[in-house]
Sequence to fold (802 residues):
Amino acid sequence: MKKYVWGRVVRAILSAFIVTVIAMVMIYTLIPRHLIFKTDPTYQKLGGKADDRERYKNTAYERLGYIYFDEQVDMCKAYAADSVEACNVNGSSQANEVAEKYEADGWTVKQYKAGGYYAYKDVPIFKIVANFFSNLIEIDHPWRVNDSSNPDLKRRIYFGTDYNGVPALMGEGTKHKYLIYFDGSFPFIHQNVISLNLGKSYPSYAYTDISKVISSGQGTEKSTMQKFETGSKTKSAVIQHSCTYKATKNLDKLDKNKFTDNYATCDTTKKDPSMIATSMTFGVLALLLAYCIAIPAGMLMASHKGKAADHIGTVWINFMIAVPSLAFIFFGRQVFYLLGFPTSFPSLGAHNIKSYIPAIVILALMNTGSLMLWTRRYMLDQSNADYVKFARAKGLSQSEIFKKHILRNAVIPIVHDLPASIILTITGAVLTETVFAIPGTGKLLPDAINEHNNAMIVALTILYTSLSIFSVLIGDLLMTVVDPRIKLTDDGGAN
Amino acid sequence: MSEMNNKFVFVKSDERESEHIAAPKYSYWRSVFKQFLSKKSTIAILIIASIVILLSIIDPMLSGYNGISHPNINNDSMKFIGPCFKYLFGTDSYGDNLWNVVWIGARNSLGIAGLTTLITITLGVTVGSIWGYSKSMDKWMIEIYNIIANVPFTLIVFVMMYILGRGFWQLIFAMSVTSWLGTAYFIRTQVMIIRDREYNLASRCLGTGKWTIVKNNILPYLISIIVTSISRDLPSYISLEVFLAWLGIGVGESTPSLGKTISANRIFMTNSGYLFWIPVAVSAIITVSLYVAGQTLADAADPRTHR
Fold:
């Protein structure tokens, strides 16, 4: 069994890897690169200034890992280290020499209109892919920070107490100050040691870490009274547990008032929940409601097979499966509008329960169709089984047979899909979220496509693919827990 | 006695005749249609579905509307006329007759869904039947299937549309590029189940040829399964087209479609609601009628329901 699970995990990782590599290669080779500037306002503003535009463009490409980009200063540093100043003069013989050397190395060397060389070279696609995967999982360690303005930085991991006096595992020379810490919010113990680096978003959420875009709070900052390490008490939105290293040369007076060390770059508390939290709230509540409606309804249909309840249920199932979800969502929204609910999420905001009800009910109803269909199917399949006939022969009442015998067996395949349904609420309900203007993860992918946000598309591909593959695995394992008769391996023996 | 004897004639014992089994005459397709048309509600749904399909084929030919030129674009008196006798569905913001806009959109949406279904079913059934029969193929096909089947379908369509760009054929490609694998897997499982049933084993023992077994014993079961798949796929591709157009990732600028009409008219939802709700209702009628008709046909095509 252990061997089987490991085999599945390895295969799951492998298939997520293959899918992501295919997506990356296609995206980075087939799509014209300049399209990422299509919706970038800064780039459009630079329309008249050819040099600035060229510099802006190439800097963006370099930061996103598409090209290597050197300007004359960098070029001189690389090839004429002893005569950098002379080389920096436009048109000097050293500069021309350096440019020739760059060209010989396979770089494309060009000149700005105002004078001065610049050179760029494409990063090969396999390098882009390799960089993405080698940076995917970041592990924090005491040698992570390299700060030239702070040469005597201590490097260690130690047990200390945080600003509240609560014990925590802390580090110096690490990126994060608090490696493992406790606080009052779920799941109470948190870590900063391992983090997921999905790349940087561009052009939307320019250069923000994609994992931050998805998981940090949204809206305006929310300040609370806080006590800082220096003893000062101020109103601030800073989350002190999230603080990361800031180079000594960048530390300002405000930082020194609050912090005793270099860990002064912190996330801030926001008024509204993050994209993932928003989507999961909607998704999980809708799922719960859907199960509460669909399983009893499916049972009712099965126990009244061929009667009115079954016919009505079948009409409902056919309707829900066939009708385009867009049509259903708008129809539902109109009904809720007539009942006095808002037609969009932001009109009452994230802190009013009325904003949640319409979308949750609509999402739940959309899920009931197939759930009812399968519950009914499984119940009917079971009700013809020999053990049911036997139970009936023993004289058990119909409701007893249904509840104690059939339901328990029929629920097994439904349990199998449960983890996938819960985990995949992270991906958000694209249409419902768009129609109700809900700030969840659902709109990320279509928006990324319309804005040519390549990094975001790659990140979401690997994220959604691995979530989906692993949730199927969890479902399989959960099924063996619920029903010990099911064996995932054919060896037949004990584990 | 003599009279009786005259009434009977001796029959010679006939080898060939004795082999003949007297069974009621059975024709598969006649039974299918008899079963299919036995319910009045099915006939009603069938009529609706055929009207919708016929309108979407005929109307664009008659009207000559192509979705690109808008002859009344400068004529304000032609815009936003509510549904009336002359303009059954009213006119839109370009002054075009919404009736024509809807039907040409329906034609393209049906075309996209139909072609996608055709591709996925053809590929899926062909590959699936071979896959079900050949054990060596099963080994590596199942690995490919496991890699692709777990990737969310919408993710694949989104990324493919991003890579290929927007357009009619691009959309068909994006929707069918991996979905045929699902159909193939489904068919493979069914072929595996039916292939080893007792009656096929018996048939093989009696010396029936492979081709006859496929034609007479397996295909009738597969037909009902294939029709079920078609009736599920066709509406879901239409819904998907509407969904993608809504997000701006559907067919390109020059191709009118139901999804694009719905998406473009959403801004008129409060002022001229008919511009939004009529295309939405048409898309719902198309998908529901096709789905129900298909499901009923699939039930009728299952030989087990024949009496």
